[in-house]
Amino acid sequence: MDDDRTSADRRDRTARVPLWRRLLPVAAFLCLLFAVAEFSGLRAHLDLPMLRMLLVQHPASGLALFVGLFCLGNLAQIPGWLFLAAAVLALGRVGGGLATYLAACVSCMVTFYSVRWLGGDALRQLDGCFARRLLARLDAAPVSSMIALRTLFQTAPALNYTLALSGVGSRAYLLATLAGLPLPILLYCLFFDYVAMALGIA
User: Fold this and answer.
1) Which tens digit of pLDDT belongs to each residue from 3-60?
2) Other C-beta atoms within 10 Å of 44: how many?
3) How far is the C-alpha of 200 from the C-alpha of 178, rounded, in Å?
4) pTM to 2 decimals?
5) Under a CB-based contact definition with an 8 Å cutoff, are residues 84 and 182 in contact?
6) pLDDT tens across 187-199, in order?
7) Residue 183 belongs to domain spanning
């Protein structure tokens, strides 16, 4: 009984925090990461040849760094196709696809926990009918809804931020990420492999 009352009190205190105060730390964090990536030269130097060389010359440590850069890049708005193309060119269709799948899943979870820790379930405070309708659909079928979104938008940062702030459970989010990414990654792998062979750079 006391635990229920404590949980209810905690929810009430959270609900009383203005929405902008819950979103401000998230916005500040993302702006900081974007600025670091921009002014440190990471965005300029993080290109296809560099990532490909990283994976070719250092298969083990390069893969770990590849995953780390994917996580940072996803938070800092660096497109995920860049990493996938580099992985396919360096490791082939199968190896590149598996490396990207691993990096993408880890990246999505890092983004989820980072944004959830900073902003909680801030989107639950939205009062608009449209927002409530979307959240109700998400609550009704969280895993299948997120699988569809993940298949369509893959690792899009905006999708990751929105889902993290929507209050969905981490387990449902992980399952949907694991199930929703294989198909688009497979299609992109086939596409980049075809382009590489057509251009003679495979």
Assistant:
1) 444 444 444 555 567 887 888 999 998 889 888 888 887 777 777 888 888 888 887 8
2) 10
3) 33
4) 0.84
5) no
6) 999 998 888 888 7
7) 2-199
**Amino acid in the structure at residue 101:** Y
Q: What percent of the chain has pLDDT over 90?
A: 45
Radius of gyration of the chain (CA): 19
pLDDT value of position 97: 93
Q: How many domains does the chain have?
A: 1
